[in-house]
Amino acid sequence: MLNYILSFLTGAIISVMVIFNTQFGVATSTEVSTMINQLVGIIFITILMILLRRNKQLCPQRTKSHWYMYFGGIFGLFILTINYYTVLEIGATLAMALAVFGQSAIGLFFDVTGLFGIEKKSITKQKWFSLAVSFLGILVMSLLSGGSFKILYLFLAFLAGALTMTQMVYNSNFAKAKGPLFSARQNVISGLFGIVIFSFLTKPQVTTEALIKVPTVPFFLIVGGGLLGVWVVVSTNIIIPKIPAVYSALLLSAGQLIASLFLDYFIYNTFSFALLIGSSIMLLGMFLSFLSDKKSLN
């Protein structure tokens, strides 16, 4: 039961993390926000690895892994950057709804192809129907929520979700060989190197000016996104191998959507019945998908 609660809570935390990162990026730049988040993550995970070094679940005996598994943080660079722009342009709820839809769609792709060691599965008509219901929910939110129908940002939000699911599966496989904490730390280390190189090669002056602004940003924004990111990476490394994917996907998605509705209302003041109805339709679609997957497991 604890893993199921953790899965839902992690979904909600993903939405909160996106808001933290977006607000930090507004105060500095999206590149510097990403940079500081990765640095905070490295420091915090290293402390955890020292304190929990005797914990065989979090710090097990490491085995060999492929060289390319050490670069999972590159996914995070694209995800953080995309989330920054989509939340500002189309709101947290619609951005997270499309991200959830992207996660579901790429999850189906993994099931069909068996990429990253995922067991191949046949896709039933019920599964396609549930995906169509979820897409209907997105259309309701996009068309009826006051001019939020921006094709580019809708596609980017979908792409962020697809990349998020890819990163989760990627990192959880790496965690099987190296342990959840080592995998999480390597994820942020590779992300930090990637964003530093990218920022100073493409925007050296903007990055330098943004770094100077960091001390003026509230402390909770400076450390918040990085700490929440650690939670997400470590918890998904633990959750995904332990409970059926049908449960983790549903609970993660539900947590993201419900938290985004509250965040839009309390932070961006963009809550509407269209968002609520659209989110409800999406949750219905995901629940139908869950029933289809559960039936296939029995």
Tally of DSSP β-strands: 0
SSE order: HHHHHHHHHHH
Radius of gyration: 19 Å
Question: What's the rounded overall pLDDT mean?
Answer: 82
- How can the largest sheet be summarized? none
Helix percentage range: over 70%
How many H/I helical runs?
A: 11
Q: By helix and strand content, what is the structural category?
A: mainly alpha
Poorly predicted runs: none
* Residue share in β-strands: under 5%
Quote the distance from N terminus to C terminus.
20 Å
Shape estimate: globular
Explain what the structure shows.
The mean pLDDT is 82. This protein has 298 residues and is mainly α. Helix 3 (73-90) runs antiparallel to helix 4. 81% of the residues lie in helices and 0% in strands.
Record keyword descriptors for this entry.
mainly alpha; about 300 residues
Q: Outline of this structure?
A:
The chain has 298 residues and is mainly alpha-helical. 81% of the residues lie in helices and 0% in strands.
Topology at a glance:
Blueprint: H1 2-27, H2 30-51, H3 73-90, H4 92-113, H5 125-144, H6 151-178, H7 180-202, H8 204-213, H9 219-242, H10 245-268, H11 273-297
